[in-house]
Design goal:
225 residues, alpha/beta, 6-stranded mixed β-sheet, 3-stranded antiparallel β-sheet, 9 helices, 32% helix
């Protein structure tokens, strides 16, 4: 559970988030929609205590530092240990060795045994994202944030990712951002629309437009680009 109360974030005189109130339950896949520069990344940074803000953000009634180990983030640029192999990255980031099983990792069919034995500095962006997805799948974090995860992935990997995210959303609270609307159309639960510095929470049962692009046009077609 994430509860946000009166969240306000400003950069000098510019307001990015204005008195945002938001309640997300324990599990599910929540998609955060907004234009570039609307504040999506700023919100994520506030969730991670990487930005100062006014208001409160709690996780099961606790501040972030109490649940830090239950949080996992996959950013678009995927920061990894480039001088280590894929297997070494997985072992290091899962920390608990009970998560680490090479046969199970290979069964996920995201990266080959050969690729996982290579240093990450030779990976493509798509391969780095696959590596981060493996870590997320093994850890099954309570909270998972994914930013533009579908960028750079091929059709087969996108299909696998949909399955992974649906499985993870039964045990985790997933907050996803991106512009690949057709990828998320069929798998999200609730929609969060960040527009004019506030967030509108559209619950699954209230979503009249199952096509996210149609919802985007309703909120943003009149905006200047």
């Amino acid at each position: 559970m994430i509860e946000i109360t009166n969240l306000t974030k400003k950069y000098k005189e510019q307001t990015i988030l204005n008195n945002v109130d938001l309640y997300l339950p324990y599990k599910g896949l929540f998609f955060l929609m907004g234009k570039n520069g609307s504040g999506k990344t700023t919100l994520i940074k506030c969730l991670l205590e990487l930005e100062k803000y006014t208001g409160t953000i709690t996780y099961q009634k606790k501040p972030f530092h109490f649940i830090r180990d239950d949080f996992f983030v996959i950013f678009d640029d995927v920061p990894l240990y480039n001088e280590l192999t894929g297997f070494q990255n997985i072992k290091l980031m899962t920390e608990n060795t009970s998560f680490y099983n090479e046969s199970h990792i290979l069964d996920l069919s995201l990266l080959s045994d050969k690729k996982l034995k290579e240093r990450v500095n030779g990976y493509s962006l798509g391969e780095k994202k696959k590596l981060a997805l493996i870590v997320a799948y093994l850890k099954k974090p309570t909270y998972l944030v994914i930013d533009e995860i579908s960028n750079g992935l091929d059709v087969e990997t996108l299909a696998d990712l949909k399955v992974f995210l649906k499985k993870l959303s039964t045990d985790s609270l997933i907050l996803a951002t991106g512009h690949h609307f057709e990828f998320y159309d069929s798998i999200i639960n609730d929609l969060l629309v960040l527009h004019d510095c506030v967030i509108t929470h559209i619950k699954e049962k209230d979503r009249k437009d199952k096509n996210l692009y149609d919802t985007y046009r309703k909120y943003f077609s009149h905006d200047q680009t």
